């Protein structure tokens, strides 16, 4: 009954046989005769999604096991697994469908990333747009949904959503409030609180009571907000996410470095654009157009600074 076909099945086999990491589900074998079947290590505690958003009759007991230390470790485990896929594995992989339903939990509640059916090798070809946008509503990076270009930064965005859900105990796939013109989702709540100077601690799952670290919660929420930046260039890499979560990198310093890097890169872009314009400039073009181009470019640089 799976919506994924033979191509996704073969992709998953080809992908997972090359991967080995503590935070990836362990692949045991497969069957391609009559029925397509992938065999994995049994995850006794199901998925994070099952524990947080499962059926009511089983949700309370399952969610009670997701204590604050467990949730922190799950966030860090997902980050380590993704960093391995993006930068450390023999074949660099973009997962393409990171969500709580694809994060399984073993007997020790160690996070294990699963379902590599949409995964793609991380190479230049993935920068080409595709007409077949695949992923899950509520977790998909905006640039991927708009352009069809899948990069590692799409996984970073999905991780940010996942981290928000783990801390808040709420799903980003369901609206928190329906308005006449706009539905309000978890991501909206987090962004508005952050941009208006509100108290981010309002987001923390009330089911945790006082059994959590306020400092840790705010820290993870701020890292998640970096990951869900609309511009992919502002988002950290997954290895940077780990450094941020572990406190090896300070968030304000990271933001300042990213801002400085963006300014520098954009200045270079404008310089190259201006030089290209001057080289290709036709002799019959009036001097006024050159002045206008130069003035606009310099004004943009001034505005940035």
UniProtKB/TrEMBL annotation:
Its main location: membrane. One of its GO terms (cellular component) is membrane. It is found in: Membrane. Pfam families: PK_Tyr_Ser-Thr. Residues 1-254 form the Protein kinase domain. GO terms for molecular function: ATP binding; protein kinase activity. It comes from the Eukaryota. InterPro entries: Kinase-like_dom_sf, LRR_Rcpt-Like_S/T_Kinase, Prot_kinase_dom, Ser-Thr/Tyr_kinase_cat_dom, Ser/Thr_kinase_AS. This is Protein kinase domain-containing protein. It comes from Ambrosia artemisiifolia.
